[in-house]
Amino acid sequence: MERIESIIQGDQLFPLFGMELVEASEGYAVVRTEAAEKFIEKQKEN
Description:
The protein has three helices and two strands; from the N terminus they run ααββα. It is of the alpha+beta class. The chain has a two-stranded antiparallel sheet with strand order 1-2.
């Protein structure tokens, strides 16, 4: 888990999108983030 935490600390997308690590194991990770309204509206247009 220490390796995963160090990767996250260096990742620019985690803070940008407000992601949170929920679960992780070798080769697998689950993250959580809140969908911003601007992204939801964009999906409705397509």
